Structures are given as structure tokens and as C-alpha cells.
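== Item description ==
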Amino acid sequence: VSENRREVLITQNGEARAVVMDVDTYDRWREAMALLQLLARAQTDLEEGRAIPTGDAIAGARAAIRRARRSV
């Protein structure tokens, strides 16, 4: 294991079978996987027409804030 790497690849008969990594590396890996899942979901939403232009979303948020302020 080099100093730059924080994981160990375990092989059996020359084939990769498992990876052991330190907790910090594992946590970063999980965060990266969560981000990739969000990006994949966003891509699907775009492809299936479940998205609105940014300007429309901002305008809707501002209108909701104005309504909330009036009701206080």
C-alpha cells in the first residue's frame, strides 16, 4: 500500500475479491456515491420532463416568501 492510498485490494487467485479502506476514505466514497445518485435522479427528471426553468423556480420561491411574510 502506498502512502497516498488508503485502501487495500484483496485478491484470490489473482482476481479482486474485496477492498479494505480507512473510515475517512469510506465516508468520502459514500458522499460521492450519494451525489452521483442525486445527479442520476436529476438527469432522469430532466429526460422525463419533470423540471422547470431556473427563473420560474426562483420566481415561485419569491412569491411563496412574499405570501408567507403577509400571513405573519
